[in-house]
Amino acid sequence: xxxxxxxxxxxxxxxxxxxxxxxxxxxxxxxxxxxxxxxxxxxxxxxxxxxxxxxxxxxxxxxxxxxxxxxxxxxxxxxxxxxxxxxxxxxxxxxxxxxxxxxxxxxxxxxxxxxxxxxxxxxxxxxxxxxxxxxxxxxxxxxxxxxxxxxxxxxxxxxxxxxxxxxxxxxxxxxxxxxxxxxxxxxxxxxxxxxxxxxxxxxx
Length: 204
Known about the structure:
The protein has 204 residues and is α/β, with parallel strands linked by helices. The chain is built from nine helices and eight strands. Strands 5-4-1-6-7-8 form a six-stranded parallel beta sheet, sandwiched between helices. It has a two-stranded antiparallel sheet with strand order 2-3. β6 (156-160), α8 and β7 form a beta-alpha-beta unit. α1 crosses α2 (38-47), α1 (18-31) packs across α4 and α2 packs across α3 (50-56). The protein starts with a strand and ends with a helix.
């Protein structure tokens, strides 16, 4: 295998969680008197981040984030893996690959979703936002995984659906792969760009 270490973003990469996230943000913003179209919320979250969304409304993390997570957890929108996720994780692991997740989601909620869909056994480690590493694109969390599990940078790939995932990978000196299903992200300097997760199998 050309690459045998795979560091995945979670939201919008392995799991289609944006419907619930957008719904959670929409409700949280309403509590502060802001009414936004859900499509506009999605574009900001996808092109930038949830932090960018609250900053544009001049809301602090302490004000917005707990409400956002609360509403997201209660959302009727179902968060589920993309249909290719299980096959890709399983196939790469069978070929000797190892899987890690680096996410701005809470570690516990990430493991809970993995358990719900019988994917947890395929993942070596999850690093969530509650582990107090700087947010992507800072490479600190990536470097933590690389050092802890003695990963060879030349055989490590960071896969994500946003610019900040790719920049984090570049900053950590690993290969990068952009999962782009929307085609509105602009020019992002990823090593590879794919529109279906199964394309990764051919890259390695």
